[in-house]
Design a protein that fits this description.
Layout (H helix, E strand, L loop, with lengths): L22 H15 L6 E5 L6 H14 L3 E6 L6 H16 L7 H16 L25 H18 L4 E6 L6 H16 L4 E7 L3 H8 L3 H4 E5 L5 H14 L3 E2 L1 H11 L3 H14 L5 E2 L1 H24 L4 H11 L6 E2 H7 L4 H13 L3 E2 L5 E4 L4 H9 L9
Parallel strand pairs: 1-4, 1-5, 2-3, 3-4, 6-7
Antiparallel strand pairs: 8-10, 9-10
Helix pairs in contact: 1-2, 3-4, 3-5, 4-5, 5-6, 6-7, 10-12, 11-12, 13-16
The structure holds adenosine-5'-triphosphate and magnesium ion (MG).
């Protein structure tokens, strides 16, 4: 069928044509924003889930919700090697300037920009677009202690107070939070703790891999109480069908029930896969207004190939030979989670011997430890991919 009308949108952070099965999360954020608007307490939220379940698109949706209530919404994506104080200073600067456009910097925001200047000077950071030239001097004694958690807490509090004064609020989303260094994550937690206590309209929603709750707990023991952790999962069968049917319906196209069943079965309801299989099925369908089981049968190998060369492949591009050996050993044991000891013995080694490789895979975000002594892939259905593409049962294939 006409590919120009194809509604499906596989791809990291690509908004789906129908965002289904996430009403509870949307409601959580709606309530948090409303409560903070009324000067009441609301917990910050952390979304965790495997790759491709829809964390990033949810963060986007939350920002849209915030914007429609006239909140200033600012995204941050953490990356390995990111300089966190600098990233925070840049984020706060953008937020403050949007809270108070330059020609009309209200008193409180002016002071907050001064506090930001203190922070920038203390942490040897550039002053962005030159607040000093706007006549904004640092505010000594604020956000300049040299202790990141205290300074961040002071900064967040200023931002929250400036927002409240203007009758607005601030929503910051932090994606890929598993890449934050432990001390940076700890500082973020302490900063949020302080703003929360003062019930200022400053809300952070973070998202990351399933390792995040453990990382947050290690960084600060009270993180568990401070955050509302939400597990973002694959979609149930009805929602998975709706994710395919609703966008087609808008184009006047119907899915044969057997065609839908096959895709739900192949994808296990994982959102990224649903979009990919939906897209291929649409393109393969003869049409003009129906997608049949035979169209899907033609599309399945194409969708698998597309995932193998894209979604899955990018995950292993940065791995070393020994890391790949570890992944192959995991996959040879079937579906996860896997006992770390069993993975090691499959490789003919003991657990401490492969510990460094295991740790690297966790740091790179390819694996996580669901429980102590266990390991699993962060990418759904990755074990099938590893068996398919990394090393076949008889013939070792280099990727
Ligand atoms: N609720 C949903 N219904 C249908 N499709 C969805 C839904 N959520 C996400 N998708 C689709 O799934 C794909 C992945 O979404 P997204 O990039 O947000 O995942 P993610 O969890 O952030 O993945 P990663 O951990 O790799 O960053 C996108 O193509 C998106 O359109
Ligand atoms: Mg994402």
């Amino acid at each position: 069928m006409d590919p120009t009308r194809n509604p499906y949108s596989p791809g990291a952070g690509n908004p789906p044509p129908a965002l289904v099965g996430r009403d509870a999360e949307l409601e959580t954020i709606r309530i948090a924003i409303e409560r903070l608007r009324r000067g009441r307490f609301a917990k910050s939220v952390i979304l965790t889930g495997l790759r491709g379940v829809g964390k990033t698109v949810l963060l986007q949706e939350f920002r849209r919700m915030g914007q429609s209530r006239d909140w200033v919404c600012q995204p941050l994506e953490a990356g390995q090697g990111m300089r966190f104080p600098q990233a925070m200073a840049e984020l706060v600067r953008k937020v403050l300037l949007r809270l108070s456009p330059a020609q009309n910097v209200a008193d409180r925001a002016r002071r907050a920009l001064g506090v930001l200047r203190s922070f920038q000077m203390r942490w040897n950071l550039p002053d962005g677009a030159g607040e000093l030239s706007m006549g904004l001097d640092p505010v000594p004694g604020w956000a300049d202690s040299g202790l990141l958690d205290e300074d961040l807490a002071a900064l967040f509090t200023e931002v929250g107070a400036a927002a409240r004064e203007r009758g607005k609020g601030v929503l910051v989303t932090v994606d890929e939070v598993q890449y934050l260094k432990s001390k940076d994550l700890a500082a973020l937690i302490v900063g949020l703790h302080q703003v929360n206590q003062e019930q200022l309209p400053f809300l952070v929603v973070a998202a990351g891999l399933p390792s995040v709750p453990a990382l947050a707990g290690e960084a600060k023991s009270y993180a568990e109480r401070l955050f509302n952790f939400r597990w973002i999962n694959s979609l149930g069968a009805d929602d998975a069908r709706a994710a395919l049917v609703e966008p087609a319906d808008e184009e006047g196209v119907v899915w044969q029930p057997a065609a839908l069943d096959r895709i739900v079965d192949e994808t296990r309801g994982y959102p990224y896969f649903l979009q990919e299989f939906g897209k291929q099925a649409w393109d393969q369908a003869e049409g003009p207004a129906q997608i049949t089981a035979s169209d899907v049968a033609t599309a399945v190998p194409m969708a698998v190939d597309e995932l193998d060369t894209g979604f899955f492949r990018v995950r292993i591009d940065r791995t070393t030979d020994s890391e790949r050996d570890y992944l192959v050993a995991m996959a040879s044991l079937g579906a996860g989670p896997y006992a770390s000891g069993r993975v090691a013995s499959t490789m003919g080694k003991d657990t401490p011997g492969v510990g460094p490789v295991r740790d690297k895979l966790i740091k790179k975000g390819l694996c996580y430890a669901p429980r102590w002594g266990e390991i699993d892939f962060t990418v759904p259905l990755f074990n099938d991919f590893v068996r398919r593409c990394l090393r076949g049962p008889e013939s070792p294939v280099a990727v």
